[in-house]
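Can anyone check this?
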Amino acid sequence: MKQNVISKTFALLRAFTDKQNEWGVNELSRYLGMPVSSVHRMLSTLKDEYIVEYSETTGKYKIGPDMIRMASIISTKVDVKQIARRYLIDLSREIGHSVYFALYYPHHRKLVFVESIKSPQALQYVLEIGVLQPIHIAASGKNILAHLSESEINEVLSKEIDCESDRNRVKEELKTIKAQGYAITANERKQGAKSVGAPVFDASGKVLGSIICVFPIGDYVNEKEFDYITRVKKAAEDISISLGCVKS
């Protein structure tokens, strides 16, 4: 099979995963910019292999059972830490400070830092690996909490914060964090530390965790803040995409 055909086949499959679940031959042809005959031929071949299936009811194609089976097997074997690590290494090298990756544990309504890349800086803040941590504080937690449901947010804040006015203040902060796609906090999980963080999402679009870059406050360069934000958000987005999350 020619490389061009392979590339076109992958482009076709990505249309099902990244754009919409079902396609008619003509609309898929227009979307891909390929001849109808070529698209029909590829779909027929993929249908024979159970990668896609055809619905007599809708007259459209959708992902088939063997594709679902293979995706399920792959997803169970994915090492999230291993996938994230190379992006964390690059981010730490670019910014010059320590980077942490946290996973969210819904049962506990808490996060755990599962991976870190330490900076070469003499002064750096070390966060505990493998220990349950609250999600109502710091960039690492607030990036997760901001993307939970309203009922989950209320549950966490009611448990962690006694004062109603403080709860309301955090809720407003979470709205801003969700809208802008990142959080910057200082002195919340560690005194003297400032963090820039962004959320990480899984293949279903649910928040999986967060990544943060941690600075001693004295080393934080305000003039570089936009660059910090851009790089952290890009790393979080790259990890999410690598885990199967479709970019919106």
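Reply from J.R.: I decoded it. The domain at 3-75 is CATH 1.10.10.10 (Arc Repressor Mutant, subunit A).
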